[in-house]
Amino acid sequence: MRKRKVDEKMNKVALVTGSSRGVGKATAIALAHLGYDIVVNYARSKKAAMETAEEIEKIGRKALLVRANIGDVEKIKAMFATIDQEFGRLDVLINNAASGVLRPIMEIEETHWNWTMNINGKGVLFCAQEAAKLMEKTGGGKIVSLSSLGSIRYLENYTNVGVSKAAVESLTRYLAVELAPKNIVVNAVSGGAIDTDALKHFPNREELLEDARKHTPAGRMVEIDDIVKTILFLVSDDAWMIRGQTIIVDGGRSILV
């Protein structure tokens, strides 16, 4: 496959994994408003991903739809080969795709563990590796991964996901150091409970939402826009000296017992 020569005047390109809905979709659209062409990644929800792509194109930006299970390294490599062929560059990677089996510790099976860790942990590492290769072509880039408060505090039935998100935060630190010589800035964002489709899979969803409503010092729950604005800050040049950090966006909820 012949490589496209990188044109510095081309529009910048951002990949948002899991961008068919929720935070991923909102982030993809926000980046499009900033002038980025967007790679819309999805695993199952093609219709929803197409709707995201349509909104991006209405803004006047290009949208490349790529189906890839982020837990599969070969699918990751194929996705980045497609990005290279289509755009010849990548400037921003948002590791948003996530999954996980919600079970008490004594009910966790090996398949549950492997599924969760592959998508949430391994996927971040190998997406970052492939992204770095493309980012080097234009002198650098930005990587932001999504975490959650379950990485640092106990949440019921959340062992699989919480441990995988702790891996994301640790990977963020290691990637930040080793990719710094390539002018690649790496950080993470950890959000409090948000009323999205993903939360519908939690058996204790209503309890989590009620806790967030009553016990968030800021006086309200975290909203998708709060996370998106933080991501946009981290991919901006204003955040150049922030490296390897996990920014907690929870209205102060994690400060309380």
From TrEMBL:
EC nos: 1.3.1.10
Quaternary structure (record): Homotetramer.
Record key words, sorted: Oxidoreductase
Record protein name field: Enoyl-ACP reductase
CDD domains for the chain: ChcA_like_SDR_c (cd05359)
A Gene Ontology BP annotation from the UniProt entry: bile acid metabolic process
Keyword Cytoplasm: no
The organism's place on the tree of life at top rank: Bacteria
Residue ranges of coiled coil: none
GO molecular function (one): enoyl-[acyl-carrier-protein] reductase (NADPH) activity
Similarity section: Belongs to the short-chain dehydrogenases/reductases (SDR) family.
Family annotation (Gene3D superfamilies): NAD(P)-binding Rossmann-like Domain (3.40.50.720)
Keyword Oxidoreductase included in the entry's annotation: yes
